[in-house]
Amino acid sequence: SRGSCGRDSGAPWRDLPSEFGAWQSVYDRFRRWSKDGTWLIIHRAMLSELNARGSINRDLWFIDSSCVRATHAAAGAPTVNESEPLDHALGRSRGGFGTKFHLVCDANATPLAAVLSAGQSHDSRSFEGAMQAVRIPSLRGPDRRRPRCLGADKAYSVVWIRKWLRRRGIRAVVPTRKDQKRTRSFDTRAYRARNAIERCIGWLKEARRVSTRYEKLASHFMAMGPRTS
Question: pTM score > 0.85 for this model?
Answer without folding.
Answer: yes
